[in-house]
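Exercise: predict the fold of this chain.
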Amino acid sequence: MNVYAAARAVFGECEVEAKLAGAARLWAEWRAGDRSVGEVGTPSDTPGRPARPELLPPQAMPRRQLNGRENHAALIHALAHIEFNAINLALDAVQRFPGLPTGFYGDWLQVAAEEATHFTLLRDHLRAQGKEYGDFPGHDGLWEMALKTAHDPLARMALVPRLLEARGLDVTPDIQRKLKGFGDAVGAAILDIILRDEIGHVAAGDRWFRYLCAERGLQPETTFRELLATPGVPRPRAPFNETARLAAGFSAQEIAALFG
């Protein structure tokens, strides 16, 4: 199988362990030179998911305070659910968008493998709380944005890594503070690993967004602002992790203009 077909096969896996193993295998095979680019084929719009968790609209998700064991487990579950969806998002970038430099596919296969590691860390931590992935509901907001940007890799790089995943850079420090205040040093340490890697993931999106803008003769920061004005696209909101955003490729001028 070429890289498109191989990524599409793992993207379509519904069984959690098969998806995790597949993401790790694809990245290892790519590094070993065992996957060619080849013919793209027809992309799939349906990611494989397990039967649980139940998926609710984002606005229907219960609001929780970190004030007890059940809500603590629900927070860890929510973080794990984000990471599971991020595996599918990275694999979708590979299976959907043909004709880009080979480095694009390598970047997103690496991201998929790292997201699988993040999910495993959080699921193991969730199990330590006596819960399993699927015991709480989740929402489908990340995949909804993937569908909105399925027509254009430039829009995808802008509105998934550079918008939604960058939001993760912003909120992680506060979540870590809450976890430490609850006595969960292990969970906070897991988020140290995730934050480190997610800076790289947002940077990959930033790099390919700027590449596609240059290819089309567009000014990146102006184009990003225009895409943020698309109906249904959420605006970035404070607080902002300026240090992490700078490390991920945002300029100080852009941060000041967009989020100041």
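Check your answer against the key: The chain is about 65% helix and 0% strand.
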